[in-house]
Description:
Elements lengths: L2 H9 E13 L3 E4 L5 E9 L1 E5 L6 E4 L3 E4 L5 E4 L36 E11 L6 H4 L5 E3 L7 H15 L5 H23 L9 H5 L2 H12 L7 H8 L3 H12 L3 H19 L4 H7 L5 H12 L3 H7 L1
Antiparallel strand pairs: 1-8, 2-7, 3-6, 3-8, 4-5, 4-7, 6-9
Helix pairs in contact: 1-4, 3-4, 6-7, 7-8, 9-11
Amino acid sequence: MDVLSDVITVARTGRPRSAYVRWHAPWGQQFASVPGSAGFQVILEGHCWLLPPHAAPVQLGAGDVLFLPHGSGHTLADGPATAVTAPACTPDDAEPPGSYASDSVDRLGQGGPSTVVLCGAYRLDPSRTHPLLLTLPDLIHLPADRDRHPELHAAVQLLAAEVGHPRLGTSATVPALLDTLLMYILRIWLAEQPTRDSTTGWAAALNDPPVTAALHAVHRDPAAPWTVARLAAEAGLSRATFARRFTSMIGQPPLGYLTWWRLTTAARLLRATEAPLRSIAAQVGYTSEFAFANAFKRMHGLAPGAYRRRS
C-alpha cells in the first residue's frame, strides 16, 4: 500500500451515503455542518451557486466537483439571492430512501431550469483520521476540466450511472467508486499545490522523493524493525538530514509517525478481523503482546480487547 491508498482505507467508518438529486428552479438546499465527516458535491447537469457561510458565492457548472473534508456546512441554490427555507440535511437523513439513490424533483420548484447534483458523505473515525486529511482546507473546488482530469470525469460518470439507476451489484459498486472519486480528488489537489518553495505540509512531503520513499516503506511494511537510520537509508539521506526534513514536512518525528501508523493499523484490524491479539501485535511490529496492549491503550484510551468489543 502507498500513503494515499492507506488514507482512504483507514479513514472511513460505516457505509458512505450518496444521492442523485434533481432540482427545478427556484430551489435551495442547506447541508448541515457535520464534524467527523467528509462530503462531496458533483454538478452533473445545469448550474447552481455555492453559498458558503463566510465567503462570497461561487457559481458552479456541470462537471464541477466540491470536496468538504471536514464536513463544513454550506448551501447550494439556483441563484445567489434565492431564499433558502428548506431544513438542512445531514448524512444520516432517512431521505433519500435506500442506501444511496434518489432521482427526485424539489416540490418547491416551479418548473424552472433543472440542476442535477450527485451528493454524498463519509463518516470518519476521529481516532483513525490520517493527518493528511486534517491539513486540507475546508473546501476543495475542482472546476470541470475533462481534458486535464479525464480519470475524475470517468469516475463521476460511473458513479452517477450507478447511483442514478440502481441495479444488481450497486451496493458493492458504489462504495468502491466513492473511494475512487475521493482518491482522484486528493491526487489532483495534491499535485496542483505549489510546492517549489514549500518545506512543510503533506503536499510538500508527497512531492518530495526522499520523504515519500520513507513513508511508503512504513506503509508497505509497518512491522519491520524500523529505526531512523533505516528510514534515512530508504530516503537516501543522512540520519540527521532525514529526521529534520521528515519532521518539518510531516509535523512529527519519523518514529512518532511510525507508532501512530502501527496503532492506527491495529485499530483497523481489530475492527475488521477476528485475528488474535498476538497476531495483530506481530503484524504491526510488536514482539510482545503486553507492550502492544500498553501502547494501544495510551493512544486509543482502551485496551485492544475492549476496543474490539466496543467496535
